[in-house]
TrEMBL record:
Record organism: Streptomyces arboris
Presence of the UniProt keyword Disulfide bond in the record: yes
Protein name: Chitinase
GO MF term set: carbohydrate binding; chitinase activity
Pfam family, one: CBM_5_12
Disulfide bonds: C166-C174, C262-C294
GO CC term (a single one): extracellular region
SUPFAM superfamilies: Carbohydrate binding domain, Lysozyme-like
Active site: E147
Any one GO BP annotation for this protein: defense response to fungus
Keyword RNA-binding on entry: no
Length: 294
């Protein structure tokens, strides 16, 4: 009888064990490698991340988006959560919102190029409340949109102006040539002294090779962020400080082109910037604040 009871208990334990489902271990996604950049050249074996997944290049490739080309081998989800979510860039503007802002942009101006440049100025769109962070991003991108026709133009259209931007009175002169320092990038960096200053700040020799600003999306965005975060221009403060210190969007216009547009100089251009800023704040779900005009 005892043996029979023991046999029944053993059998029952086996049944219970078969019915108990242990919780699955939480999947741990791999760390995302460096984000894919459409301007970069990748050779076989090099890696890049895109939309929350890691990829490895099978052979030489440039501007072939991971996930849409058989050049790339999919290595699976990366980032937090293990479910293939797109890893957060820390930027308050998503790629979908960026595309909504610039539906006709030049393919040179990539979202990945912008997010790759953010590390150079970590306070940008990352200071104050969420409302202020989004407001600064909207202000920057609105001015950028105005300067480039909606991120269409990489360099200044009027080539007749090109020789004008060389100040040979500077001790370092214009080593790239008389006509090499024309406007480029999202805030149309121009003049040899600005290329020198931006290059020194970013650790890139832009004085010798200003063409990098029209060849590398990340470099282009970095020059725009350099100006926004460090230069007063014709104003009295940087555009970054104008937003985070609640001085208003109008002060960002003054810092970028105030000598020509502000104080009644060109009210139509000022209003164009304001209209774009208002549109972008609506996309980001934030407010414009006061002092919109200059």
């Amino acid at each position: 009888m005892i043996r029979r009871v023991l046999s029944l208990l053993v059998a029952l334990a086996a049944v219970v064990a078969a019915l108990v489902v242990l919780p699955a271990a939480t999947a741990q996604a791999a760390t995302c490698v460096t984000a894919w950049n459409s301007s970069s050249v990748y050779t076989g074996g090099q890696t890049a991340s895109y939309n929350g997944r890691n990829y490895t290049a099978k052979w030489w490739t440039q501007n072939e988006r991971p996930g849409s080309s058989d050049v790339w081998a999919d290595n699976g989800a990366c980032g937090t959560g293990g479910g293939g979510e797109q890893p957060g860039t820390g930027f308050v503007v998503s790629e979908a919102q960026f595309n909504q802002m610039f539906p006709n942009r030049n393919s040179f101006y990539t979202y990945s190029g912008l997010t790759a440049a953010l590390g150079s100025y970590p306070a940008f769109a990352n200071t104050g409340s969420t409302e202020v962070k989004k407001r600064e991003a909207a202000a920057f991108l609105a001015n950028v949109s105005h300067e480039t026709g909606g991120l269409v133009y990489i360099k200044e259209v009027n080539e007749a102006n090109y020789p004008h931007y060389c100040d040979r009175n500077q001790s370092y002169g214009c080593p790239a040539g008389q006509a090499a320092y024309y406007g480029r990038g999202p805030i149309q960096l121009s003049w040899n002294f600005n290329y020198k200053a931006a290059g020194d700040a970013l650790g890139i020799n832009l004085l010798a090779n200003p063409y990098l600003v029209e060849q590398n999306a990340s470099v282009a965005w970095k020059t725009g962020l350099w100006y926004w975060n460090t230069q007063n221009g014709p104003g009295t403060m940087t555009p970054h400080n104008a937003i985070v210190n609640n001085r208003g969007f109008g002060e960002t216009i003054r810092s970028i082109n105030g000598a020509i547009e502000c104080n009644g100089g060109n009210p139509a251009q000022v209003q164009s910037r304001i209209n774009k800023f208002t549109q972008f704040t609506q996309i980001l779900g934030t407010t414009t604040g006061s002092n919109l005009s200059c």
